[in-house]
Amino acid sequence: MIILGIETATEQVGCALGGVEGLLSSFHAAHGRRHAEVLVPAIDFVCRSVDIELREVSVIAVDVGPGLFTGLRVGIATAKSMAQALRVPMIGLSSLDLLAHQVRYCKKLIVPVIDAKRNEVFSAMYRHVPGGVQRIRDYRVGSVRELADELASRAEDALLVGDGAIRYSAELGGDHGMVEMGGLGVAYPSAVDLVELAHPRALREEFVQPRELEPLYLRKADAELRWEGKASA
Fold first, then answer.
1. Which single residue of 71, 75, 85, 105 has CA 20 to 30 Å from 221?
2. Closest Cα partner for 18 from 218, 202, 170, 219?
3. Cβ(58)–Cβ(2) under 8 Å?
4. CA pair distance 30, 11, nearest whole angstrom
């Protein structure tokens, strides 16, 4: 079984190949939001680097968000098109789950934070459990201040990861000194983690068909909000 992972929910574009042998090849780049231009050549690169043809891929896993609208649309549309062409099933995973997985051995409260722009963030909360992490609070979009207040009310040691944690480190750090910020190494969801988390699901045949896979937006696109504002005016 070979799994192709596609990750485009944030500023970073990533793809990876893996299977029973573990990770086979991966590519990640974060520059200028050029998801549409970078993704397909990147997939071709990871395949050629290990002499694997696309027809050998048996599952396509994709990050369904939350994240940037444009990036999500590019990644999910590409993943669906490829799955339909290859006639293979899909697995969708959340960008917040992928971020939490990167620091799964941390014993603190794990809080992945993705920059949602407009002074808002996407977030969730997790705890370390044997074999990984368990989500203890649902995916949410809200203001930076709301998340800062939530962390302060919990009054416990927490590790924040993601580009939102880096951008809003001053606001989210608080004055109680219990919040630690992850660095650039855990700023973005990784296609490597996507393949790793998708593998056991694939073994259990927890698939979705391309037509059934939906993005996890959590809020409307800026264009929709502007249109609604004009309509109400």
1. 85
2. 202
3. yes
4. 6
Q: Over the chain, what is the mean pLDDT?
A: 93
* Strand 158-161 to 109-115 pairing: parallel
Residues 171 and 101 in one domain: yes
- Do 127 and 55 fall into the same domain? no
46 and 154 fall within a common domain: no
Supply the CATH number for residue 134's domain.
3.30.420.40
CA dihedral 172, 115, 100, 203 (to 10 degrees): 170
Look at the chain and report how many structural domains it folds into.
2
Which residues span the domain enclosing 18? 2-94+189-232
What's the full length of the chain, in residues? 233
Same domain, 119 and 138: yes
CB 7 within 8 A of CB 190: yes
Query: Which amino acid is residue 141, in one-letter code?
Result: V
Which of 92, 125, 97 minimizes the C-alpha distance to 109?
125
43 phi/psi in degrees, rounded to 5? -65, -40
- pLDDT score of 31: 76
> Is the separation of the CB atoms in 46 and 15 below 8 Å?
yes
What is the C-alpha separation between 220 and 35, in angstroms, rounded?
A: 20
pLDDT digit string (tens) for 192-218? 999 999 999 999 999 999 999 999 999
DSSP state of 8: -
Q: What is the pLDDT of residue 21?
A: 87
How far is the C-alpha of 43 from the C-alpha of 205, rounded, in Å? Answer: 24
Which of 126, 128, 102, 116 lies closest to 183, judged by CA? Answer: 102
Round to whole Å and give the CA distance between 49 and 101: 26
